[in-house]
């Protein structure tokens, strides 16, 4: 292992020691109990198995065979989760073949940021993660299960399921993906149509046709956003069947991998080494996930989600850890929005297995961690296929299938990872530099302040932004309105940048991978609603964003800056963010949520 990465890991271990030891002690106490059907009262057990066939009741109670919980994010509205419709039947069938049982313990909500972008519903998006975690806890709270299969794939769903699973850390748990949709219109063409629409050069009919050509079938969206970053990180953490992430939902091998998830979980339950997920996800596994994110230029949302996930396992990380790790982690992948390829092309070129192999071989990833695969993390460097009805895994070629998409560690796209911490008198924020042109790493310009994304869009439509400037979009943090992604701001800002203007955005909100080629200092903490310095900025103040050295400052003399008061959100905007589309129900979360850098956690 690289010495620098070992140092970061040891630092994480040291600051996590009290919380991690307390967490492991709770797991050990849970593991000392009898299995559920032997421990619970007879009435409790009768309720738990009432709807099962007679043979399954016999397996659970008399034969003491494994009983698996299925927690599913299935719905038939969202393309990524539609494939899960028949998974419970497949899982039950495979479990029965192995003399075990499986029950759908519960469902969790799954919302789509693509549908809610720029709409009030987007203000529920981040909080849906903790809602999913709580829903997972309710599903598993019946406490009659020997292990769990978690069925989910998209933005907040996998982090929520993982947080929920870690709060039942005594259970062996495997995550079951469903795969991406087939390639549609290429992402570059899609973006160009969006930019043309922002300029009024094409109408709604042309835009809808373009979007429908991109999002057209079952599976995840094919760009490398949060959903597909989830899948990359699940592979790096050893929580999938190796190589499961990016196989199309309708490929023959997909069902066999789902069945292998059942077989593997039953084997784990029956083995001496139970591999409870809370012990499997240790500090080194968290570092492996962080390295995989940085090496692929993954979603900035995970600088929030993985802080929360780690905290669920008693592990404390922050953005400094990501920043320092990035210095030692090469950027090995170029996938849209960081490049032109989609995840299907990434998979063909080598995919997660290629990246994990390169990171292991160069000392950027711990290979000797526990995984759900008996062979450990090195099994995740191989490609699965089906031969004579059985799964086999084979080594990948040493060379990349396409060097414009994925590269070896001795010839990376960059010597450092695709994410960077920005620090200065405006607080702490992050920037996704993997997509930003190098001539835009430093932007200095006058601030134009917006309290909503609609204000910026209106100013663009009026032609008021044809100049160099830094857009300051504030009151978009977790406490203010749930920290929505500001995806709709990318096309107009891209239009201005393409015209030659130097533009950037500074916000306490999120943009995920949507920031694309626009320099974007996001997740600024403290947020405006927590009296963060962003609330002191005035129109015309010069802001300097320097992604080379990692700084973000407003260039105002110290005395003036110190004497300024924080501006507050107008009563109108505050009321707008508090009502309709269910936002009233999340008032408690807005009140209690921690900062973005603390994972925007609502349950501490």
Automatic annotation (TrEMBL):
It comes from Candidatus Methylopumilus planktonicus. One of its GO terms (molecular function) is 4 iron, 4 sulfur cluster binding. One of its GO terms (cellular component) is cytosol. InterPro entries: 6-phosphgluc_deHydtase, Dihydro-acid_dehy_C, DiOHA_6PGluconate_deHydtase_CS, ILV_EDD_C, ILV_EDD_N, IlvD/EDD_N. Its EC number is 4.2.1.12. The keyword Iron applies. Pathway: Carbohydrate metabolism; Entner-Doudoroff pathway. It is an enzyme of class 4 (lyase). The gene is edd. GO terms for biological process: D-gluconate metabolic process; Entner-Doudoroff pathway through 6-phosphogluconate. Binds 1 [4Fe-4S] cluster. It catalyses: 6-phospho-D-gluconate = 2-dehydro-3-deoxy-6-phospho-D-gluconate + H2O. NCBIfam families: edd (TIGR01196). [4Fe-4S] cluster binds at residues 154, 221. Catalyzes the dehydration of 6-phospho-D-gluconate to 2-dehydro-3-deoxy-6-phospho-D-gluconate. Keywords: 4Fe-4S, Carbohydrate metabolism, Gluconate utilization, Iron, Iron-sulfur, Lyase, Metal-binding. Belongs to the IlvD/Edd family. The keyword Transferase does not apply. This is Phosphogluconate dehydratase. It holds the Pfam family ILVD_EDD_N. Residues 405-600 form the Dihydroxy-acid/6-phosphogluconate dehydratase C-terminal domain. It comes from the Bacteria. Residues 65-379 form the Dihydroxy-acid/6-phosphogluconate dehydratase N-terminal domain. PANTHER family: D-XYLONATE DEHYDRATASE (PTHR43661), PHOSPHOGLUCONATE DEHYDRATASE (PTHR43661:SF1). Its cofactor is [4Fe-4S] cluster.
